[in-house]
Amino acid sequence: MSDVLLFDWRLSKAIEYEYKPQLNLRWIPVPEYPLRVMLDVPPPTYAMLNKDPLLLQSISDDCKDAFVDSLKKIVPRLQALDTECGAAGGDFFKYAEGRKRVLQQIELDIQQAKTKAMAAITKRWDELEKQKKEYKSYRQGVAIKLVKGAAGVAGAAAGLGGAVATGGATLALSIIGMYRAVVDGGKTLWECMQDADRVQKRVMGDLESLKKTYAQNPQLGVAREVVASSVNAVLKLPINVTNVKTLGDDNELWKGKLTHLVFLAHELAETLNELLDKSEQLSAQLATDPDSKKKQAALKGFEADVNKLLTEGFFIASMGRRVQIQKSHQDAEKGLKVQEQVTKGIEELKKGRSKGVDWFDSIIAFAADAALTGAGYGVSPPDFSSAASTMSKVKDGASVAMDSATTLYGIYDIAAENSEKVKEVQDGLLKKWKAKILGPEKQGPAPPTLSKSA
After folding, report:
1. 207, 211, 239, 242: which is closest to 224 by C-alpha?
2. I want to staple 89 with a disulfide (CB 3.0 to 4.6 A). Which of 25, 43, 240, 394 is the partner?
3. What number of other Cβ atoms are within 10 A of residue 423's Cβ?
4. CA nearest 427: which of 453, 400, 398?
5. Furthest C-alpha separation in the chain
6. How is residue 111 annotated by DSSP?
7. Reduced to 3 states, what is the DSSP secondary structure of residue 124?
């Protein structure tokens, strides 16, 4: 038996040039799904087709029509998956799960197209035999053969082969896993800022409360210390009566929150720079594949968004503002220096406990100057075009929106077959950050958790 190439077929190209109206998917890449459609024929038929190129072209056209007709089933499946993934905010794992199901359905659609193509060839041969009876013998043993990528249906859907497929998958899963961890880190950065602000306000409230007492009467201030200590110890109120010990405890908690913020901002900046390096490596690999231009374009957009995160920060959808990583780090370090001054002041207060109102004014001014409200700035939200309302609903709950949510999906299919590895990368970073940022467990209020994305 010999193989005759009828045509090379790529699902993405067929949808782009043969399907109307134009397909616009927002949250998923169109599967490449490259195929070689071959006619498997015995040697006599092979020799005859080489002598009759018009017949070969007619058979090829009949087959191609059957495959184009399959788009009527395939495109709605992709649109449904796109809607499903959009409702999940472009979540990678939702895509990987749905992609497996949809590719199985597409495989059946392709097999049906193959059956219809064979029926079209049979019809064509029947008509030909009516004109040339000698052609009857040539139809014996003729069949259609489909040649997919070496990785099978799921691997072929990404449209990559050889070393690009292997190395590209490793880089893609690292990029996606790291990106998901950065999303979680962005949420936690915002939570750390909010926590630090809340504790800072408590420190200021403690100082203001003590200031009023000492302003009335220094001796009353000392008496209040004794009474407050007794009340807090005996009644164990959920909100302590303010005394110097309460102020000291809140001040130490403030230090912890600021320290978490410094560490996390540093880790996020390092991870984002590593993301850029890996994205550039993947782009270099894809550049060797002429059919990966859309993936290269997606990576280019992703790199631009990562740079935007580094320079302009995370967008807080519910606040209409961005939180800058570098500014958060700088403000937290400044806050730690102020916290040291408050700590020294508390030690002085413990020694004398009859400080004047001027002392409180100076310490309160220190604490007020360390507010983190300057770590971001008001901006218009990222442009999510037609998906704006969906993104807003999804991201408002998490408080953090990422510009790159609309570009990274372009390489999802490269890593989809290794979704468990993506999770390993994400969980590995979160575990590392938890150990470094949160440190050993201590008694008292727990710092923000690094919760994983849905």
Report:
1. 242
2. 394
3. 18
4. 453
5. 121
6. H
7. helix
